[in-house]
Amino acid sequence: MSQHASRIVAHYEHHALSWDADRRAAAWTDKPPIERFLALLRPGATVLDLGCGGGVPVATHISAQGFSVTGVDSSPTMITLCRTRMPDQQWVVADMRSWTSGRRFDGVLAWDSFFHLGHDDQRRMFPIFAACTASGGILMFNAGPAHGEAIGSYRGDPLYHASLDPSEYAAVLRHNGFELIAHSAGEPANGERSFWLARAGRADPMV
Question: Which Gene3D superfamilies does the UniProt entry name for this protein (predicted)?
């Protein structure tokens, strides 16, 4: 499985234009969780979109609601699309696993991106989430319903996905200073996405 996980960055750059076109053509079934995330933010809040892709439909919707977006994606082609579509927002070519800015955002979103990371990389993302999220800020990410790995397929190429167990996500959120607001286990009303919504607060000391 590890060889497939290591190819994710190259996969998305290789298929960037096709992936963007397919995403734009598809029905936006996962809009309700995004709306729930945005409803918890103050007007004009800053949002960090990790794994923003070409920006459609998520980042364009966030921007249209008056929020300030910083999008990060490992694909230069995807970021070029974002810069063309939303030149007034900020776009960065970077791997979320190593990106730092020194800024803290009111909202941090890792949507349909975090679940492409291997188990250990997912665990290492939580201190990064904590470093990027302002006190009282909102974090939302999606993954799978249970611990495991799966290989899908996109245009004939393998596409890696992974998830920790929900109990581990709850624990690492707590240890990194997040209070769990909600967890959805793939309901149809949420586009069958399993997601976690949390608020940044005080870190739970590791014992």
Answer: Vaccinia Virus protein VP39 (3.40.50.150)
Residue with the two structure tokens 């800015």 = 101
Between CA 148 and CA 205 the distance in angstroms is: 27
**Residues 82, 24 contacting (CB under 8 angstroms):** no
Q: What is the pLDDT of residues 17-67, one digit of tens each?
A: 999 999 999 999 999 999 999 999 999 999 999 999 999 999 999 999 999
DSSP letters spanning 40-82: TSPTT-EEEEET-TT-TTHHHHHHHTT-EEEEEES-HHHHHHH
Q: Which CATH class is domain 2-200?
A: alpha beta
- 114 torsion bin: left (phi>0), alpha (psi -120 to 50), beta (else): alpha
What CA–CA distance (Å, rounded) separates 99 from 90? 14
Does the pTM surpass 0.90? The reply is yes
- 176-207 burial: b if 16+ Cβ within 10 Å, else e: bbbeebeebeeeeebbebbbbbbbbeeeeeee
Distance CA 120, CA 113 (A): 15
Q: Which two tokens stand for residue 50?
A: 């990790």
Type of residue at 144: G
Ranges of beta strands (E only) in 55-206 are: 68-73, 90-93, 105-110, 133-143, 148-154, 157-163, 178-185, 194-200
Which pair of structure tokens corresponds to residue 185? 């286990």
Token pair listed for 175: 């240890």
